[in-house]
Write a structure and sequence with these properties.
Elements: E1 7-10, H1 14-25, E2 30-33, E3 45-49, E4 52-55, H2 66-70, E5 86-88, E6 93-96, E7 102-105, H3 109-117, H4 121-146, H5 157-171, H6 174-184, H7 189-194, H8 200-210, H9 223-229, E8 240-242, H10 247-259, E9 263-265, E10 272-275, E11 280-284, E12 287-291, H11 300-304
Parallel strand pairs: 1-2, 2-9
Antiparallel strand pairs: 3-4, 5-8, 6-7, 10-11, 11-12
Helix pairs in contact: 1-10, 3-4, 8-9
Bound molecules: flavin-adenine dinucleotide.
């Protein structure tokens, strides 16, 4: 099996599958080794009780750049072609009160403003400018998340170009929004909302976006940044679900990778990684599989520590 594969990927979670799909699409021979009998890792949908499927850990895909994955450009994965269907929740947020009243934040601005007016005409008037501003800032953040982090001290032309285009995007925010963006990166979401709104129910509903998925309260540093992360896709606090369960995202990624020639083996726990001059191997309970040596070692100390 020497050099049968260009790349061995340990783990068929979303990151392993995504990497496999992109590498296979780029022409590499890829093998994914997954220890469990299901793929998806923390984003699997499993039949815990007979006849009932559950998203056992992750239940939505807010943290993933889904629009990139669905993109139909030749470079991207076009996962809709492999069966992925997303559900954009609408309303995005509903905050109820014990008396049966509540604030509803819809995708439609007119409906949201109508919902807010009953609680605060001031906040209703602030809604559209606020949403326009935060979704603009969130778009810059999305761009920042999408770039490959530069190699410190070793920038090549492509990286300089990427950083340059990011710099232009930041400059494009203008004199008012650039300082607001930089300020929001570190501030608590409570301060961000106190600057804009007066109604506590609305601030509570929006503040939930800032603390979603993290272990901080709304006064925590960096929660405004987390809030902006939840304001991509031209919506505030949007939640995106996968039809049929989040495991269908893993299935679509796997099908995409396999369509481009990747092999996925389940029930294949890697117990040891070995490196020698010609190749790097992953041991499955003593049976070695080999891939080519990496062009660039991410963990040189790991491969050096395991002489063949
Ligand atoms: C409680 C919780 C809730 C979350 N909720 C959300 C959410 O609602 N929305 C959202 O967007 N994100 C959510 N996340 C984050 C999201 O689940 C992760 O970012 C994502 O699933 C990580 O994928 P991964 O491929 O890096 O890792 P994993 O999903 O952990 O995949 C790693 C894979 O490697 C396999 N593996 C490990 N060791 C070996 C080995 N030696 N040999 C072979 N295979 C091996 C594992 O079995 C597993 O399948 C949540 C995370 C947690 C912990």
């Amino acid at each position: 099996m020497n050099n049968a594969y260009d790349t061995l990927i340990i783990g068929a979670g979303l990151n392993g599958l995504t990497t496999a799909a992109y590498l296979a699409k780029a022409g590499q021979r890829v093998l994914i080794l997954e220890q469990r009998d299901v793929i998806g890792g923390a984003a699997a949908t499993e039949e815990i009780f007979p006849g009932f499927k559950f998203d056992t850990v992750t239940h939505n895909v807010v943290g993933l750049p889904m629009q990139v994955a669905l993109n139909t450009t030749p470079r991207e994965l076009n996962l809709a072609q492999y069966g992925l269907q997303l559900i954009d929740a609408d309303p995005n947020i509903y905050a109820p009160l014990p008396d049966g009243e509540g604030i509803t934040l819809w995708r439609d601005d007119d409906k949201t403003v109508e919902s807010l007016r009953r609680f605060s005409p001031h906040d209703a008037a602030r809604w559209v400018p606020f949403k326009t501003r935060v979704t603009k800032l969130a778009a810059v953040l999305a761009k920042l998340h999408a770039i490959t982090p530069p190699r410190v001290g070793d920038l090549d032309a492509a990286q300089l170009w990427t950083l340059g285009s990011l710099g232009l995007k930041l400059r494009g925010l203008g004199k008012r929004d650039l300082p607001a963006f930089l300020r929001a990166l570190a501030m608590p979401v409570q301060d961000l909302l106190d600057d804009e709104f007066e109604n506590d129910l609305l601030k509570g509903a929006l503040g939930s976006v800032g603390v979603r998925g993290i272990r901080l309260g709304p006064r925590g540093t960096g929660t405004a940044y987390n809030f902006l992360r939840g304001c991509t896709n031209n919506a505030v606090g949007a939640t995106i679900y996968v039809r049929g369960g989040v495991g269908n995202l893993a299935n679509a990624l796997a099908q995409c990778a396999q369509a481009h020639g990747a092999t996925i083996r389940t029930n294949a726990p890697v117990v040891h990684i070995q490196a020698r001059k010609q190749n790097v191997g992953a041991h499955l309970y003593g049976r070695p599989l080999y891939g080519r040596p990496p062009r660039r070692a991410w963990f040189p100390q790991l491969t050096r520590a395991a002489p063949f």
